[in-house]
UniProtKB/TrEMBL annotation:
This is IclR family transcriptional regulator. Keywords: DNA-binding, Transcription, Transcription regulation. It comes from Marinicauda algicola. InterPro entries: GAF-like_dom_sf, HTH_MetabolicPath_Reg, Tscrpt_reg_IclR_C, Tscrpt_reg_IclR_N, WH-like_DNA-bd_sf, WH_DNA-bd_sf. SMART domains: HTH_ICLR.
Length: 288
């Protein structure tokens, strides 16, 4: 029997304080504290009381009367955990689930200095030996790299394409800048990329983007596998699995719950889903 679970209520005072902290950080000391309080519909007296507590604990600091900045505690936390580190740690259990289900190697990568940097990896199958975390690979010939290049600004993409020559790693590698430009435009439109044995002769790779809170592409994830893995309907199954994993990462990064829907191929049931439909995603520990 499905149990009805009510979401845990957030204490109203805490919710008000977090709203106030958020607008202080976003504003960066540009507007008065009273104006920020109005933005979150707080009476001036309530905002003052909450501001005193936030300042006492180092969440905000007073720049001058009526102007506040992020406090030392927040800045210390930001120095300790950057987005790159958090993204890798959040992604690893999700990648492991996907890798175990497909019995193939799964990566998460970002674009750094025109190269793909692998931040997280779950190893399985023939591709397990060829990469490691923090390793870099050329972007133009990999699934993750194509997704990331397809989502930079047109000017940045043009600069990248003008920085050739591009080396053919296999007979399938696209090395002509004009052909590569058209290919990346197709990737941008379709929302996924395929490495058709362009890095290694006997391996192919399917990749999709991971979006940030501002809807920009912050990373990409991929499944690397022998060619038969992506034949027929299995490519669509793999795409669905990758997209669900990407959404799970996105929602974990944004602090929102997620229930996986199709991390089930090629079998009939996903290990990311509990037998109890109200439990949610096992990997990310979220609740529906």
């Amino acid at each position: 029997m499905v149990r009805n679970r009510m979401p845990t209520p957030v204490p109203r005072t805490l919710e008000k304080a977090l709203d106030l902290l958020r607008v202080v950080v976003e504003d960066g000391g540009q507007r008065s504290f009273s104006k920020l309080a109005q933005d979150v519909a707080l009476p001036a007296s309530t905002a003052h009381r909450l501001g005193v507590v936030l300042e006492r604990y180092g969440f905000i600091l007073r720049e001058r009367p009526g102007r506040y900045l992020p406090g030392p505690w927040l800045m210390a936390f930001a120095r300790r955990f950057d987005e790159r580190t958090v993204l890798a740690r959040i992604s690893r259990p999700i990648l492991r689930e996907l890798s175990q289900r497909w019995r193939q190697t799964v990566h998460l990568g970002v674009l750094e200095d025109s190269m793909v940097t692998y931040l997280a990896k779950a190893a399985h199958g023939p591709a397990a030996e060829f990469t490691r975390e923090d390793m870099q690979l050329e972007a133009y010939c990999s699934g993750i790299g194509k997704v990331l290049l397809a989502n930079v600004s047109p000017a940045a993409r043009a600069r990248y394409l003008s920085d050739g020559p591009f080396v053919a790693l296999t007979s399938n590698t696209i090395v002509d800048p004009e052909l590569l430009r058209k290919h990346l435009e197709e990737v941008e439109v379709q929302g996924w990329a395929f490495d058709d044995a362009e890095v290694f002769e006997d391996l192919k790779c399917l990749a999709v983007p991971v979006m940030g809170a501002d809807c920009s592409v912050i990373a990409a994830i991929s499944i690397s596998a022998p060619a038969p893995t992506f034949e027929g309907c299995r490519r669509e199954q793999a795409l669905a699995a990758l997209r669900d994993a990407a959404v799970c990462i996105e929602r974990r990064m944004a602090g929102r719950a997620f229930v996986a829907s199709s991390l089930l191929a090629p079998r009939s049931k996903s290990p990311l889903l509990s037998d109890d439909p109200v439990v949610g995603c096992k990997s990310c520990g979220s609740q529906p």
